[in-house]
Amino acid sequence: MKKLFKILKWTGIIVLLLIIGLVVYVQTSWNKKYEAPYPEIKASTDSSVIARGKYLAFGPAHCGTCHVPMDKIEDVEKGDINQPLSGGWTLDIAPGSFRAPNLTSHPELGIGKLTDGEIARTLRHMVGSDGRCIFPFMPFADMSDEDLTAVISFLRSQPPVEHEVKRTELTFLGKALMAFGVITPMGTKGTPPKSVPIDTTIEYGKYLANSVGNCVGCHTKRDFVTGAFIGEPFAGGTYFEPDPFSYGMSFITPNLTPDPNTGHIASWSQDVFVARFKSGKVYKGTPMPWGSFSRMNETDVKAIYKYLKSLPPVAHKIDKVAYLAGEKVPKSAM
Fold this sequence. Notes:
2 domains; Cytochrome Bc1 Complex, Chain D, domain 2; single chain; mainly alpha
């Protein structure tokens, strides 16, 4: 009996020391600094460039969905595209409380103190001006130089707004993911294009769906702890649990591939697809930024349609995309 007690005692001590060692390592190692190149992007004062940037920010790139105060998000969704991007949106998930920063030209509380290169590096390489890793919520790494210039030019054109946004705060899990290199800056997949011709083509649709609108980011099943994709591209299956804007509802993204049996839009014509984008929300709690996407011009929507129709079909049945408050979501659907 004494021998067993001794074994248990030393086992407990060893486990405790391992836990202490783990906590110390995470707390002292999570805030890593990274190097990344500064893209040669220079903001323009040309009105047409700024207009393109504003279109992207309040349209397909949907910056206005996050970079406004929480009580202004619905205003933007309903059409207020003159709302300053002063930040404040908050997302509370397992790795931490993530807050969208102030993107107005305020010299201290916004981006006024940052160079064009620092802003471009953050958007393209997920490395902040202080070298920290930015979690992958802004999938614009492969946005063209032309569009990246337009977005930064628009941001520079905004008047400064004195709105202090508290910094993102990571939980122990979030810090552990950083410390052990599970989360690292996500850069480009290749060399981003200088520009992409705007036309109703598959190529332009691919660019919008993957590098601007981030359709792939939600319509591909992923792990929300690490952000890793764990499903076939555009085959749906990402589960969105209830949040402050979902009115208690939860959602599962549909399969957008042209599989004839399980593809959500497989039977849709181009006209039906365009009309759906223009009609906005069906469920008021949906995580899809319908307000922003309803402002997309028909050229962009038609290009996305053609691209989605060109995808290889994936058989992935999503029985239901919206669950009412209190309605149980079957585990098989997540």
